[in-house]
């Protein structure tokens, strides 16, 4: 645990030191769970967004992208169920005065049981070596089976109690499991209460005429209310999707873990409109497709897993998370939800407008069903950033800190470095930048010895360093150094662009999805 915490602290301080993420309004001591993306962070975030948009919108003929407003008519949130049901179950510890999400306390307890299972698996895998069959071990080892049954039973009971609004039972469960306040160790709990997560604000100049608004807690509703506009103007035929990226706001109670849980964050969502009855098939397809997208970035297959929900949201008939191994353990990165016709039917009811599709093959009109994929851009940022930050032991017994960001996402693709600040080398370096900057984000760096500049670029995540030396003046060549292997090659200046292009081109990365 201590190592995990330590690793996570390193991630946070590295993000600050290398210009990725700053605490919002830091000079006023910050604002809790609100962050600003700095010069490198803004580029990385933009690249992740583009990687998603390319895969979801540009490469799918039947998916289009929109950009709906953050403010929406307040009835939207009545129809969607957010006014009545977008709640988190809260519990306070009477001694420490700390407030927790009751479901998170229970999930953390279950995560500890799961960690025990992982430990048993690791032990057995060491003992049996190559002959180890994990599946069989999980199914037959009595201790592991007991752990798993216990974990399943707890989650099932919690899911049921939350679904039935039986908050007294959620409290009983916390007491029966003997869960203590992580801060104080006290087990002196209040009752569990519901707390609405939407931020309210007002529209209008005078107090009497002002209209109560909400900052949207998800981007999805901007798509649902535009469903018919997009379908008609785009002449879309079912099945088709509408995608968008944008800010969402939630008054999170337990806002912690850096950019994992923020009060203002960005979502990348896609709602896929389908014929009723085909939702199972599309749900499975999108689960598979989205996992492939993640795997294409090469962060390691072992760092992802699916978690099927026992506790379903009010709109869903099936839901799964893609979980990622963050520095603090496996946690939700993306959700795939089969939302039925809940949202469109609700908007029909509340607006009095028909939101139906005439299916020319079936020759009938219906309210489409929806399967959605919903990922937090900031969480994706944290997944990529934390996974990429590595300390490497080098042969000469030194270590280097290297941020092995997938080259396609790296904020800066190359740094151009004149070996010395004189003899016309800076001019050559600037000329190279003049040419490359039309294709890639590149920077110039002439400060410090070249070895130190390499280390700086390694830590900042720049995949290539291009060094201009005296030989460059004679034969128009430079050395190109690769961040991950630290190998250096002498190449013609005229080749540099195509070498970088080969490694950072989105096409070859996304083609790994198959
Ligand atoms: P959680 O259970 O972690 O609160 P959720 O199930 O409420 O998340 P969804 O409503 O399914 O999340 O939102 C879709 C995605 O948006 C999540 O998978 C996550 O990546 C992202 N997300 C949700 N809440 C936050 C937040 N407060 N900060 C950053 N990202 C978030």
UniProtKB/TrEMBL annotation:
Enzyme Commission code(s) on record: 6.1.1.14
Family designation: Belongs to the class-II aminoacyl-tRNA synthetase family.
Domain Aminoacyl-transfer RNA synthetases class-II family profile: 177-418
UniProt-recorded name of the protein: Glycine--tRNA ligase
Main location per the UniProt record: cytoplasm
Protein keywords: Aminoacyl-tRNA synthetase, ATP-binding, Cytoplasm, Ligase, Nucleotide-binding, Protein biosynthesis
Top-level enzyme category: ligase
């Amino acid at each position: 645990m201590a190592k995990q915490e330590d690793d996570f602290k390193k991630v946070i301080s590295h993000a600050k030191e290398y210009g990725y993420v700053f605490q919002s309004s830091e000079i006023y001591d910050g604002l809790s769970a609100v962050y600003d993306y700095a010069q490198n962070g803004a580029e990385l975030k933009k690249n992740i967004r583009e990687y998603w948009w390319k895969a979801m919108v540009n490469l799918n003929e039947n998916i289009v992208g929109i950009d709906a407003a953050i403010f929406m008519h307040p009835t939207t949130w009545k129809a969607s169920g957010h006014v009545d049901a977008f709640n988190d179950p809260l519990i306070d510890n009477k001694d420490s005065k700390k407030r927790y999400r009751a479901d998170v306390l229970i999930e953390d307890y279950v995560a500890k049981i799961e960690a025990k299972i992982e430990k048993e698996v690791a032990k057995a895998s060491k003992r049996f070596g190559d002959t180890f069959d994990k599946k069989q071990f999980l199914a037959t080892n009595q201790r592991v089976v007991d752990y798993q049954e216990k974990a399943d039973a707890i989650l099932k009971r919690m899911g049921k109690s939350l679904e039935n609004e039986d908050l007294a039972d959620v409290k009983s469960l916390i007491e029966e499991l003997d869960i203590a306040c992580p801060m104080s160790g006290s087990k002196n709990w209040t009752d569990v209460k519901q707390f609405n997560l939407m931020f309210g604000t007002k529209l209008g100049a005078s107090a009497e005429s002002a209209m109560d608004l909400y900052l949207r807690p998800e981007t999805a509703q901007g798509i649902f209310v535009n469903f018919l506009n997009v379908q008609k103007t785009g002449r879309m035929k079912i099945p088709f999707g509408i995608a968008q990226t944008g800010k969402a706001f939630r008054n999170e109670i337990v806002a912690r873990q850096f950019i994992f849980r923020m009060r203002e964050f960005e979502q990348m969502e896609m709602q896929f409109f389908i014929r009723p009855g085909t939702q199972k098939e599309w749900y499975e397809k999108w689960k598979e497709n989205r996992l492939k997208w993640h795997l294409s970035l090469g962060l390691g297959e072992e760092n992802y897993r699916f978690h099927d929900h026992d506790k379903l949201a009010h709109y869903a008939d099936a839901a799964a998370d893609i979980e990622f191994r963050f520095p603090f353990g496996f946690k939700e990165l993306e959700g795939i939800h089969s939302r039925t016709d809940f949202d469109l039917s609700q908007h029909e009811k509340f607006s009095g407008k028909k939101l139906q599709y005439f299916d020319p093959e079936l020759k009938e009109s219906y309210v489409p069903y929806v399967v959605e994929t919903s990922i937090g851009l900031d969480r994706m940022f944290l997944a990529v950033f934390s996974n990429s930050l590595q300390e490497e032991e080098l042969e000469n017994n030194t270590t280097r800190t290297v941020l092995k960001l997938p080259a396609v996402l790296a904020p800066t693709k190359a740094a151009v470095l004149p070996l010395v600040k004189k003899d016309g080398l800076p001019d050559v370096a600037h000329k190279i930048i003049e040419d490359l900057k039309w294709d890639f984000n590149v920077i110039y760096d002439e400060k410090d010895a070249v070895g130190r500049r390499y280390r700086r670029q390694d830590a900042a995540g720049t995949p290539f360093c291009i060094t201009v030396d005296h030989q460059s003046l004679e034969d128009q060549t430079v050395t190109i150094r690769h961040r991950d292997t630290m190998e250096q090659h002498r190449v013609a200046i005229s080749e540099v662009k195509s070498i970088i292009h080969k490694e950072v081109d989105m096409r070859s990365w996304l083609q790994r999805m198959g």
